[in-house]
Amino acid sequence: xxxxxxxxxxxVAVRFLLALSxxxxxxxxxxxxxxxxxxxxxxxxxxxxxxxxxVLPGIGEAIPQFPLKISQNRRYTVDSAGTPFLMIGxxxxxxxxxxxxxDVDAYLLDRKARGFNAILVNLxxxxxxxxxxxxxxxxxxxxxxxxxxxxxxxxxAYADWIVARASELGLLVLLxxxxxxxxxxxxxxxxxxxxxxxxxxxxxxxxxGDRYSRFRNVLWVINGDTNPPDLDLVRAVANxxxxxxxxxxxxxHNANGTAGADLWGGEAWLKLNNVYTWDPVFPxxxxxxxxxxxxxxxLLESQYENGPGMSTQRLRGQAYQALLxxxxxQIFGNFPIWYFDGTxxxxxxxxxKHALDSQGARSMTQLRNLFSHVQWQDFVPDVDNEFLVxxxxxxxxRSVAARSPDGLTALxxxxxxxxxxxxxxxxxxxxxxxxxxxxxxxxxxxxxxxPLRAKRLESFRxxxxxxxxxxxxxxxxxxxx
Length: 481
What we know:
This protein is elongated. The longest helix has 16 residues, at 153-168. It has helices spanning 95-98, 101-113, 153-168, 190-196, 198-211, 231-244, 260-264, 281-290, 312-323, 352-355, 359-371; strands at residues 44-50, 69-70, 77-78, 84-85, 87-91, 118-122, 172-176, 218-223, 249-253, 273-276, 297-301, 329-332, 380-381, 388-390, 400-403, 409-414, 420-423, 431-437, 444-447, 452-453, 457-460, 473-480. By secondary structure, it is α/β, with parallel strands linked by helices. It folds into two domains: 22-58 and 380-480, Immunoglobulin-like (Sandwich); 69-372, Glycosidases (TIM Barrel, Alpha-Beta Barrel).
């Protein structure tokens, strides 16, 4: 949500076409999945469709029982029943300021139906709403501008209703109490925070911490898009929340490229870490996965759908790079949904309701469906390339892999139609079944030559576009006796 995120109309369509020599094998065009396949690699076979339920039976999903807490191994969160919670979030920064009740309900119901289980929201919006900081009913958050010590009950009562409605639908609310803003500028509240001072900001933190302690579905997001010059001002809010609600989960939304624990590591209130980057996600996710002491982390923010140079494939890529590198969740973002048509500052057509059914949102539904079929919380990321040993790539084109501890299941994300090499001896079982899974439509296809011997190097290449016309696929590997 930074001023640096200038938007231009349209998006860049990304396609990767495979053109191999006839000497490598017969050319083959498959209906719906176009491409050229070589006999030497294990490619998509459309004539061998697979229902992944037969390969990955699934673990079942239940409505989360809030509040969340940190797992014993400190790698992820669990609900009050002990069920691991994989955060599949949507960015809705301006929700509380821009929408009236009927539109809030429409938005929440849509996101729930698509498999999202979390939303990222500003409790008080400084700029990106039609009448900011007032809400759609004309109520400002404070009785006097910028007076954190003078909260307006009417405003916060409406915010209460939104949090409660989200809770009814099983949605976690990542709530930013006082978004500071990129560079401490006019997008956020940093100048008013500085004018208020640490004592009043601590009192404000206690106020919101106490008020929302009765809602079990809140995760606090301190700071906002900056590394503030005076850390004590932001720390005061976090400590105020901690004082009012010691069990509250908090993280910090720092400047682009700065993880939560990079700025606040070791502080008692920081319970969750996160990654925020507009660059390739894998390097920063790897750093946070390897960080000691361990803190669960998630992808808080990255590039948005309809952003400059963005494609749906890249949106998928940043999500899979996070989840297969140890993140316990990821948050998707879309222009114009995050501001709900509340500003004309970005060169993206209005129409947030139409955007709800975007290709990016559909891809997030498929991502959630896939991970509901595996014990994702136990997967071990292949951060040192012990399993994925060839065709790794770099940057946005970096392939990523993770395996179950028992070696019976592995997932590999390949961002484009190219060959990768896997050290199959890292998997268990006499043979390994290989399934190509389309991340756009959620359809599976047996790989040519599957099942494979488990104790050798094997090369894989989709040899086809997915149903969205892109080259990225998920390779599912399942050991069998």
